[in-house]
Amino acid sequence: MAVNKVSSGSVLNLEVQTGVDAQGNPVYRSRNYKGIYSSAADQDLYDVAQAIAGLQSYTLSKISRVDNAQLVEV
C-alpha cells in the first residue's frame, strides 16, 4: 500500500520574551498565526514575522514555521 502526503497548511509561530520570573529567568509566550499557505516562501514568512515583531512591545526570540500534512493511503 502506498501512502501520499497531502499538505493541509502551515502555521507561523513567533516566540516572544514577555519578561522575567522571580529567579531572573526569561519568560516566553508563543503567538501563532494560522492559515498560512504551504506554498509560502520561507523568506516571505520571515519578513512578515519581522514586521509583526516590530509592532509589538515584546522582544522576538524565535520564528518557527510548522507545516501540517495528512498521510493518506492510496
Q: Roughly how many Å apart are the termini? A: 7 Å
Q: What is the alpha-carbon Rg in Å?
A: 16 Å
What's the total helix number?
1
- How much strand? over 45%
Low-confidence regions: none
> By helix and strand content, what is the structural category?
alpha+beta
Please indicate the count of domains. 1
Biggest beta sheet summary:
3 strands, antiparallel
Brief summary:
Helix content is 18%, strand content 59%.
Explained architecture:
By secondary structure, this protein is an alpha+beta fold. It has one domain. It has one helix at residues 42-54, and strands at 3-20, 26-36, 59-73. It has a 3-stranded antiparallel beta sheet, with helices on one face. It is elongated, with a radius of gyration of 16 Å.
Question: Secondary-structure map with pairings?
Answer:
Layout: E1 3-20, E2 26-36, H1 42-54, E3 59-73
Antiparallel strand pairs: 1-2, 1-3
Features:
alpha+beta; 3-stranded antiparallel sheet; 74 residues; single chain; elongated
